[in-house]
Amino acid sequence: MVAPRHFVSPSILLAACLISVPASRAAIPADQLERGAKIFTEKCQLCHQPSGQGAPPVYPPLANSDWFKTNRERVIKALCEGLSGPISVNGQNYSNVMPAQMLDDKQVADVLSYVGNSWGGEAPEFTLEEVRAARSKTQFVTYADLLKSAAFQPLPKAPTGWTLRELVQLPEFCTRLAGDGSDKHVYALAQNGAVYMVDTTQGAMSPIIKASDYIDPKRGEYVALGCTLDPQGRLLVVTNQMLINDVPVYTNEVVIWRTVGPVRDDDSRKLEPWFTMSYPRGVGGFNHGVSHMAFGPDGKLYVSSGSRTDGGETTTDPHYFGGAEVDTTACLWRIDPSAAKPQLEVIARGIRNAYGFAWDGNGNLFTVANGPDASSAEEMDLIEVGKHYGFPYQFADWPVKAGFPYKHTPPPPAGIQFTLPVVNVGPAAGGSEEKPLFTFDPHSSPAGTIWCGEQYPAPLRGGFLITRFGNLLGAPAAPEDVGFDVLSAHLEKRKDGGWLARTTSVLAPLGRPLDLLPIGGGRILILEYTRSINFKQKIGWLPGRILELAPGKP
């Protein structure tokens, strides 16, 4: 039960809707199973899946798991202090790492009782006493000890000429910031769809839109990963919702919602569907979904649609579409907001999961995208209309050939030329002059991205700022603590037409930073998703905070 790899998937990210409670043993109270179902949805199902089938070979199944049935104490301890492999589940070996979960004794008992009695299982009830006894044998002997380990960490040192302060602590997990470029109208989107107004003067947040105001959770699990303001001050929010009933295969329904008027006005905050489309739900745990949205210099809305696979794999599960990617995934969309009926246009393909993108001072559009579990570098790409950026045929600058790096890697389509990512020569994020990297450390999960123009002081002026959420797979896939920072990347055009980045880490470590927002006066807001500033502690997840980076001496 681990937070998503990608927003991933994040992803970055977690769902927050109640799923139906299964038929179960009469000895277990129905209200306990209902509580357990809600916890499973919020904490577990993004990796282990609503059906409990997991995402082998990364995340093991819980449904009919022989390991779950025969290791009750170790199952409890896995939630209370985390779990690192290797373990064997139903004959399959797993060596991933799951951090401790921020659940008290009662919540642990509830969710494990639910899991043990779902998908045909009939496990004895997990009791409060049983959980307490198992937890007492872990490194966090009480829930209070676990909470203490997850306290907010001291702020890192700001770059020279800048100051850093905590603006506000988040009431729940948030995935995106939006604003009009000033400090007057700043909004934070929660992964469950709620919208908060952020008071940058008082350091406070207040809810202005409830998820229940516009999303029906009974239709299926959902997550909200993107929001932006249009030139009229209307708020746009994108949700991805999993439909499993009355559809031929499990389906991801994408809805871009828009307020009826400027979101700053109390009477015009109602969100209504503005654009809707669907595609087959992703294989395993890799439904990255639709995430970042931003209006370009041309006035059109640009939208990132992530991949529905890790690397082009297929499935024989009848609940899922058997193919790999479809026309509207692993690509970048463009939508004309002035059209009477919005239509999406795919402008570039082969982009695995661009959680962040931005334009430089010359109008060039750059994305940053997560790489596959095969441990290639994470990419930064210059996006040009009609070009293909490799996925799932090529990762970073690796060779292009069928069967590499996966057995299922398909042969490249005839006549298509792939565009290589930006080459990073460091000194940060994995690259160096002697050994360039295309582009950032594997599994560092680059995310929110902004351009720092002439209004920003050195050393950030004239470059991109890029958050890196941080590794979720652990060693040996990648260094455990790769990411957890904000990079500054200054780009140069090479003689061969490609791009080169000179990259430094300007803020580290941070609590899984996920997004950035300029608010005027050279100030920048940084959204920390959670509190963990490294992977090696393997502690659980609690909501993070919003920081303010501002020019000036401390």
Q: Which class do the helix and strand fractions yield?
A: mainly beta
Q: What is the helix content?
A: 10-25%
Q: Helix count?
A: 7
CATH superfamily of the largest domain: TolB, C-terminal domain
**Number of separate domains:** 2
User: What Rg is obtained from the alpha carbons, in whole angstroms?
Assistant: 22 Å
- End-to-end separation: 41 Å
Low-confidence stretches: 1-26
Number of DSSP-assigned strands: 28
Report the sheet-strand fraction: 25-35%
Q: Record the strand order, biggest sheet.
A: 21-25-24-23-22
**Quaternary structure type:** single chain
Indicate the CATH class of the largest domain.
Mainly Beta
Give a concise summary:
The chain is mainly beta and 554 residues long.
Description:
With 554 residues, the protein is mostly beta strands. The protein folds into 2 domains: 113 residues, Cytochrome Bc1 Complex, Chain D, domain 2 (Orthogonal Bundle); 390 residues, Neuraminidase. The protein has 7 helices and 28 strands. It has a 5-stranded mixed sheet with strand order 21-25-24-23-22, with no helix packed on it. A 4-stranded antiparallel sheet has the order 5-28-27-26, with no helix packed on it. It has a 4-stranded antiparallel sheet with strand order 6-7-8-9, with no helix packed on it. α1 packs across α5 and α5 packs across α6. The longest helix is centred in the first third of the chain and has 14 residues.
